[in-house]
Each structure stands twice: as C-alpha cells, then as structure tokens.
Amino acid sequence: MITRDEIIRLTNEALKKEFELTDAQLVPSAHLQNDVGLDSLDAVDMVVVLEQKFGMTLRQGYDIRSIVTLNDLYDFIEKLAREHEAN
Question: Is the dihedral of CA 70, 29, 42, 8 positive or negative?
C-alpha cells in the first residue's frame, strides 16, 4: 500500500520534472494556478504525467477541476490509490 509520504514524493518528483519547478514551489498549501503557475493546458499535462507515474486513471468519479492546491492533489491521489488497491 502506498503511503501519503510516497504520494507526496512521487507527485512532487513528477511535477518538478514536467514543469521545471523547485522544492520551494511545492508546498502543500501552494495554489496550482496562482503559486505554481499551472494553466488549464498544464493541468491536462499534469494529469497525464501523474497517471503514468501512479499507473492509474485520475479522471474517474471526481471533478479534477475542484483540485486547487497541492494538498488537494495529494488527497485526490491518495483517495484513488486506496480505491485502486481495494479492487
């Protein structure tokens, strides 16, 4: 079972690589658009990168547009990982 710390580490690794971000930008309270600078096209890329990183679909049963902060993103991935492992 994947831990919260692993989710945070893997998510941050993927975002740093894909969007050339720094550790300082990747704090849980960071707003994905205002603080991290991701626009709607970046959000699509982010979903694809994270799907590849975690090996699961992120768009199922949840409105991904309601994810505003990095912490929201971690929560979302953690929830999906739990559901994925349960199946």
Answer: negative
pTM of the predicted protein model: 0.90
Whether 73 contacts 32, CB under 8 Å: yes
Question: Hey, is 31 helix, strand or coil?
Answer: strand
3-state secondary structure of 69: strand
Interval 1-49: pLDDT, tens: 899 999 999 999 999 999 999 999 999 999 999 999 999 899 889 999 9
CA distance 60 to 29: 24
Give the C-alpha separation, 5 to 45, whole Å. Answer: 23
User: Which of 44, 41, 50 lies closest to 14 in space, CA to CA?
Assistant: 50
Number of Cβ within a 10 Å radius of residue 41: 8
- The 10 Å Cβ neighbour count of residue 55 is 8
